[in-house]
């Protein structure tokens, strides 16, 4: 039969879904069977019922296996309706997110970049809420499932009893509804508490623009290196930025271990540099601010998004440090390449001593990638080491 109903028409499924539940197990019908008396049950449920009492559990009519037939069309109907229900729920939450963002921001005006960010996160938050809520509902669905299984077991036991079967069934039904309502109340309470938690968290944590970190550009003159999108917190001091800066530079291929005493952090007023001001810029310059170690560039100097901090002076590299023998730098587990010096007639010469003390000697590899358990180097042991402080 063709339908002329509009595609956008919605139908309340609550009263319909009740007809998809088996009267015996109260769960969704599976492998639906119809009896000659016109009742529908799960195949497994009605077969067990017939085996025990040979009668319909609803009208008490005599039944045997020949009085039961598979209802494939009803199974297909259930599948289609449930699929449409799931799609409808997804569409509902999508419309909810769209309506929320449309109400929060004017359609008539183009959204600013900040408004676009807020709109995006509002949609994402609603989608995340839907996913989280789905998990909560699954937990409570499992509780309902356990409750239904328990009640089904009791119903099946009552069918094998003699006497007031109908009265017993009604008592079990009432108890089942009471237990299900209790579980539903717990779910409603959990959702209410979730909403309260969201409200409290957003009230405390929704940031004001002045408290947001700023993405700036760092330019390191000694390496002619530009680091874009370096995030600086509003309360972050230069002294707190330096460790992150050295880590970033190290990841870019420079073996940095710290900053020298001559290093200066410079910020141009208005975040715009002119080359004549930058070259040899001093702290007294009208257009350049020198940032001290305890300076907070965002809240104290007005560093803006996209602003540039220039770093002058020399950054300390590991290669600038004095060479040291392994007896000074030993760490258990570190691997060492040992050499043999035939000129001095000794083995077990560490890599540093081989490059420094025995640089002009006849050396060759002895053991590569060795992990010593103690600071072993025969160069200082034989009093041949020329490295200071060894």
Automatic annotation (TrEMBL):
Q: Which Gene3D superfamilies match?
A: Zinc/RING finger domain, C3HC4 (zinc finger) (3.30.40.10)
From the UniProt record, list the coiled-coil ranges: 162-189
- Report the residue ranges that make up the RING-type domain in this protein: 22-59
GO MF annotations for this entry? ubiquitin protein ligase activity; zinc ion binding
Query: GO annotations under biological process?
Result: proteasome-mediated ubiquitin-dependent protein catabolic process
**What does the UniProt keyword field contain?**
Coiled coil, Metal-binding, Zinc, Zinc-finger
| Superkingdom per UniProt | Eukaryota
Name this protein carries in UniProt: Tripartite motif-containing protein 12A-like
